[in-house]
């Protein structure tokens, strides 16, 4: 179902971002199934109605995470998603980004535009100071997106996250409100 611009938290020329809703389940899971080849072995987003319900439920109204659907303009079709996980307040004011493009939108610059919108939202209305991206070294598309949005490489973490049955190494990239530049 197309979504109107009035539902966007922020929008650019080609994309808008908005929160997840339970009503997005059918379109989201259809896009995930269409994108399985693109996502593997890096991502395993929910591909069934039951899995989406649980996933979206963890993002909706949560204090320690925020989920954003990337919508392609003008029609509002889902192009991907960006989540800020592990949000810590207090002196840290930080969150960890996770994201995925859907196959029909991959390689078109839509995720870069949307990630820029999420960064602005995180450093603006959300009041965060630092964002991190943890990506597997072989995930060249994810690393290129981090780099193109001004994230700096901070380090390498062996066996950082358990994904697809094994502990996976990750590169750690970060951006702070004071060091960001427009890309």
How does this model look, in words?
This protein has one domain (5-176): Gcn5-related N-acetyltransferase (GNAT) (Aminopeptidase, 3-Layer(aba) Sandwich). 26% of the residues lie in helices and 34% in strands. The chain has helices at 25-34, 36-39, 49-59, 110-123, 140-148, and strands at 10-11, 15-19, 66-72, 77-88, 94-101, 130-135, 152-163, 166-176. β3 and β4 (77-88) form a beta hairpin. α1 (25-34) crosses α3. The longest helix has 14 residues, at 110-123.
Using only CA atoms, what is the Rg?
A: 15 Å
Order of helices and strands: EEHHHEEEHEHEE
CATH superfamily label:
Gcn5-related N-acetyltransferase (GNAT)
What is the β-strand count? 8
Global geometry = globular
Give the strand order, joined by hyphens, for the main sheet. Answer: 1-2-3-4-5-6-8-7
Largest beta-sheet characterization: 8 strands, mixed
**N-to-C span:** 32 Å
Query: How many structural domains can be distinguished in the coordinates?
Result: 1
Q: Helix segment count?
A: 5
- Would you identify the CATH architecture? 3-Layer(aba) Sandwich
CATH topology, anyone?
A: Aminopeptidase
| Average pLDDT taken over every residue | 94
Low-confidence stretches: none
CATH class: Alpha Beta
The percent range for helix content is 25-40%
Topology, please?
Blueprint: E1 10-11, E2 15-19, H1 25-34, H2 36-39, H3 49-59, E3 66-72, E4 77-88, E5 94-101, H4 110-123, E6 130-135, H5 140-148, E7 152-163, E8 166-176
Parallel strand pairs: 5-6
Antiparallel strand pairs: 1-2, 2-3, 3-4, 4-5, 6-8, 7-8
Helix pairs in contact: 1-3
């Amino acid at each position: 179902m197309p979504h109107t611009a009035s539902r966007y938290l922020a929008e650019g020329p080609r994309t808008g971002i908005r929160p997840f809703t339970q009503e997005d389940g059918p379109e989201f899971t259809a896009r995930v199934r269409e994108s399985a080849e693109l996502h593997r072995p890096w991502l395993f987003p929910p591909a069934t109605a039951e899995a989406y319900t649980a996933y979206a439920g963890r993002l909706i109204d949560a204090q320690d995470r925020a989920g954003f659907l990337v919508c392609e303009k003008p029609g509002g079709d889902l192009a991907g998603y960006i989540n800020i996980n592990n949000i810590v307040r207090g002196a840290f004011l930080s969150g960890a980004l996770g994201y995925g493009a859907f196959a029909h939108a991959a390689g078109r610059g839509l995720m870069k535009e949307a990630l820029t919108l999420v960064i602005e939202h995180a450093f603006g209305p959300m009041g965060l100071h630092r964002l991190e991206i943890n990506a597997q070294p072989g995930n060249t598309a994810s690393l290129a997106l981090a780099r193109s949005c001004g994230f700096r490489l901070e380090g390498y973490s062996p066996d950082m996250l358990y994904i697809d049955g094994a502990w996976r190494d990750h590169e750690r990239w970060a951006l702070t409100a004071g060091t960001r530049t427009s890309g």
